[in-house]
Amino acid sequence: MAKLLRLNMTDRTVALQDLPEAYRLLGGRGLTSAVVHDEVDPQCHALGPSNKLVIAPGMVTGTSAPTSSRLSVGGKSPLTGGIKEANAGTGFAPALASLGIRAIVVEGYPQSAGWWMAHITWNAASGKPDVTWLPADEYAGRDLYEVFPQLFDRFGKVSVAGVGVAGELRYSNSGVVFEDQEGRPARYAGRGGLGAVMGSKGLKFIVIDRKGAPGVPLANKEVFELGRKKLTDALMSHAITKPKGALNSYGTAVLINILNEAGGLPTRNFSSGRYENAAQIAGEAVFEGNKERLGKELYNHACSPGCIIRCSNTWHKPDGTEHVSCQEYESIWAFGANCGIGSLDDTGELIRLCNAYGVDTIEMGCTMAVAMEGGLLQFGDAKRAIELMHEVGKGTPLGRMLGNGTATAARLLGVRRVPVVKGQAMPAYEPRAVKGIGITYAIATMGADHTSGYTIAPEILGVSGKVDQFDRDKAALARNFQYATGFIDSTGHCLFIAFAILDIASGFEGVVEECNGVLGTSWTMADVGRIGKDVLDRELAFNRAAGIGKAQDRMPEFMRLEKLPPHNVTWDVPDSTLDAVFE
Length: 583
Ligand code: SF4
Prior knowledge:
By secondary structure, this protein is an alpha+beta fold. The chain has helices at about 30-40, 90-100, 145-155, 165-170, 195-200, 220-235, 245-250, 255-260, 285-295, 330-335, 345-355, 360-375, 380-395, 395-405, 405-415, 435-445, 455-460, 475-490, 500-505, 505-520, 525-545, 555-560, 575-580, and strands at about 5-10, 15-20, 55, 70-75, 85-90, 100-105, 115-125, 130-135, 160, 175-180, 185-190, 205-210, 315, 320-325, 420, 425.
């Protein structure tokens, strides 16, 4: 029977609990949000003893379902004060699933200083996972690029979850880090400060050795295989997701030129929708730059086991040695267009430092842009931005200001153009120019978050039909995307499967059949909305009890007052539209 593994940091006790019947059909975000809803006091301090950190692989994670090695990390967010789910693709996800653990719940509060690590192995004799506690002080205060190889030297082929300096210092912008397939500390459940929750509990790392683990049982192999094949066929044939297609060739940064053309690429702290140097930092420039430096074409790789889309890239230095993985759209944009920095070498270094210290690139890039607007440095000054990143890593007073997020930095610097919703910085789509994603930012349970409902697919890319980017009447579109996303985030599939399954209905059917094959359910496509709605209903209930109501489902004032070039548009979606999304 599937288990919940509880790690209590008050006294470092471990409990392996049978999965409650109420959670039997949940996975990923559905499960993290259910546990947080059921067990965390919404009024608690996010860094106090009543908060919990929940890590859950998706429903089909650990099986041969394509592109499904994702997990969700949940808790009360130190950044937004509301519920949080952050998602990552990593070998840690199938490793956890293969042990029969549907979620790890980190709870309690340490009674003394010091860092700990939980080492989880499979005990063949008992048929259960074992947990050993080990001191981890020797890894604290250090660059994760130094520490990860030492963990692999010590423990062999393992999977790792952990925090960097940012989580240790309890920054509101700190992520939970996981290894990529090459063992880099490069895959983050980055958004919302959940690294600080892990850090507040004195837990530095969780290390999983899956050797001998039984794997994920299938309730109906035939149904599962049918679904797996349908989804695989869809992913392998769609122009965006197929081998040597858009994502495999240019990565997510293929969007830089597209959004720039649409006038929706936030530039210099959301003061324009178009960046004059966009082509220099676009996915095409990553591809051509690598080709020039390596002397051959380099297609992208999988961030996690079993991904057949393979959108994750590696950027190389002029001498052909590796610089960083991964320069993806949001991260390049955050330090590139949004900071007026037009060099991939500079964005690459800034992204590498985020990985080294353990912060989210979107929040950090927006913070840096606010610092530029506040006069701490000039727009385009990459050298100073890199120096400031080291302040973040050292935990100096200036670094702590920057490490605690965009809203905090803006307050301390007296900046009024603050692109946040519910305290979380906006991603790489200008809401004034693309109204549907703006509605998503405003009403998402997570704060400003494009992955809560990626309406960019129809608004900009024409996936599942094209809608006008400036049309304001998109409450239903935003709602439907959020419910569908609540479901996909629960399956363990990467959200990028959406490009294919929105256009190819059999692919979407395949996802539902995979779930049926694992869980023994007989869901149809008609159940997707209901399952996603259940996830959102729990998250909304938590937020309401935490004091986050409809008054917080709003865009920052400057977006209503300032016209955004080049289309000279303001945020003009009526509040009544926002309030109608979840009525
Ligand atoms: S599509 Fe990209 S982000 Fe998603 S799992 Fe595959 S490599 Fe990772």
